[in-house]
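Section 4.2 – Deliverable D4.2 (structural model, holo form)

The reporting period included a commitment to supply a predicted holo structure for the target in complex with adenosine monophosphate. Inputs used:
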Amino acid sequence: MLDLTPILDAVRLAADLTRRVQQLHLKGSEKTGREPVTIADYGSQAILCRAISLAYPDDAVLAEERADQFVTLVSEESRAHITQLVSSVLGENVTETDLVTWLEHGRGKEAERTWVIDPVDGTKGFIAMRRYAIAIGVLEGGLPVAGIIGSPGYNEGLLFHAQGGAAYMQPISGGEVHRIAVSSTPNDAPNPHVVESAEDSHADHEGLLQLLADAGITSPVLERIDSQDKYAMVACGDADLYIRLPREAKPKHKVWDHIGGTALVQAAGGMVTDLDGSPLDFSLGAILSRNRGMVVSNGQLHERVLKALADWKVPGT
Ligand code: AMP
Ligand code: MG
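Output (C-alpha cells):
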C-alpha cells in the first residue's frame, strides 16, 4: 500500500510555514494585501512537491500554484522572504531556484498516479484567521484512492488521512492516530449538523435553507466553515451533511478543492455526489466539468437531500 508517511510529515511542515506567515503578516496587524497570502501558498506547495519528488519521483502532480506566477507576480523581496521561511521550516538552505523547481515538479507528466494539491485551501479563511486546509488527493485510474487534509485551524490543529479504504485523524503537532467514521445520525433526523461555505460568493446560502426545508430538515444546526475542513467534519462525525449549492448554472469546481475531502469522506463510510446524485468525476483535468455542486453526507441522510434536489430549479435557468 502507498506509504503516506513522508507526505504527512510534509503537510506538518507546510502547516508550520502557513502558521508562521499568519503570525508574521496577519495576526494583530493591518492586513498587508494579497502578497503575504500568496507566499504561504507558494511555500506550502514547494514543501509538499519537494516531499513528493523525494518519495515518489515518477508520479505526476497537479497543483494549484505555478512557478511562472511566483516569479512574475511576487516581488523580489517577498520571494526572498518565503525562500528564507522555507529554509527555516525545512532546516536546510534552499534557494529561490529550488522553490521554482519544486513548484513545477511533476506537472503535465504521464504517470499511473497523480498527486492533486491545494497548498492553502480556503485562502479567504486563512486571511481572516478562520479555517483553511492543506489538501492533497491521490488519483489513480481517475479515482481518488487516498487523501490528506491538514487542518491547522480545526480545534488545536488536526491532520486527517484516508488510505486503503479507512480514514484516520491525529493532532497535527503529532500524537496518537485514531480511526474515524461518519456520524450515525439517521435519515429522519430533524436537526442534523449541516456545514456550508463561509463565503457568500462561494455558495447559495439562502437556497440551502430552502432546500433543507424541502427535505424536511426543519431545524438544522448550520455552521459556515472555510475549505475542505467541511469534508473532514463529515468524515469524523462532527457534521452530518455538507451541501454546496453553486450560485452559477455552470460552476467550474476545481479538482483540488474536492479530491482530498472526497477520499476522506468515502473512506470514513460517507457519500459524496453532485446535486444530481452522480459521483464526482476527477478524471477530466483541473475542472470537475461534469459535476454541479456537492452533497456530502454520512450516507444515511443522502437520499433525502437528493430527493429534495430532484425538484430543485437551478438559478438563472
Ligand atoms: P470553500 O471555503 O468551501 O468555499 O472553498 C474554497 C474554495 O472555493 C477556494 O479554494 C476556491 O477555489 C473556491 N472559490 C473561490 N471563489 C469561488 C466562487 N466565487 N464560487 C465558488 N467557489 C469559489
Ligand atoms: Mg482551494
